[in-house]
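Board notes (copied after class):
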Amino acid sequence: ELKKDVFFVDIRDSKALNNVFKIYKPNYVIHLAAKAEEILSPFIRSSLYSVNIVGSANVINACVNHNVDKIIFFSSIARFGDGTPPFTEESPVNEKDCYAFSKTLIEKDLKEAYEHFGLNYSIIVPFNLFSPFQNFYSLYRNALAIFIRQSITGEDITVYGDGNCVRSFSDCQYLCNPLEKLLTGFNGEMFNIGSSNPITVLSAAQIVQSIASKRGFSPKIIHLEPRREVKVSYCDTSKAQKQLGLNDQTNLEETIDKMFDSALK
């Protein structure tokens, strides 16, 4: 049963979106809605830009129209591209694909909305978030969820290239407390929020394989052709630790085990 304050609205539909704001009268907006299939983004330009750019512009306009106190926007580590990690909030923007372009454009639009209309905002840069409540059906994002689904359904775990791309998988539960602090402070600021423990994609796949085998599954890891993607990508989270009290305790094995429970249900 849905709560009365849950609305299913396409953010590209400005009229419907503004109607939700009119009914709910939010003080704060946490904006996560996006097409997030980064690898797929060059092949879905029109739909990606319509959601990520036009849809986000509609959200920002609704915030202005309905006197929202503040919007918190989820950007992406993709903004740093092939830069030199660990990325700090001051690292140069170096987008590599359409998904990253869409995110950094909205960052700029938020700054303009503040300067023009006084709409307060903060920006979160998350990276490789995962959770037992993840979408296990996507073919193009959430690598750990894909590996788990493949294990359960009797497929091979597919790793692109040699698997030596480096990422920092982050349990999303540790994002919540810093997010709460951003509601009422740190206007106009950006924070990297996530795990500070990078690992290769192949090593992550091997962890999934090991946990799968303990549960009676026997997936093999196979290597497919390399994809055009950033080789090494992880962040410095010192700013969030010092100012927002970020205390990321991501336990990759433990949460992957919980993800198996969730996927099997």
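Comment from the instructor: The longest strand covers residues 120-125. The chain is about 40% helix and 15% strand.
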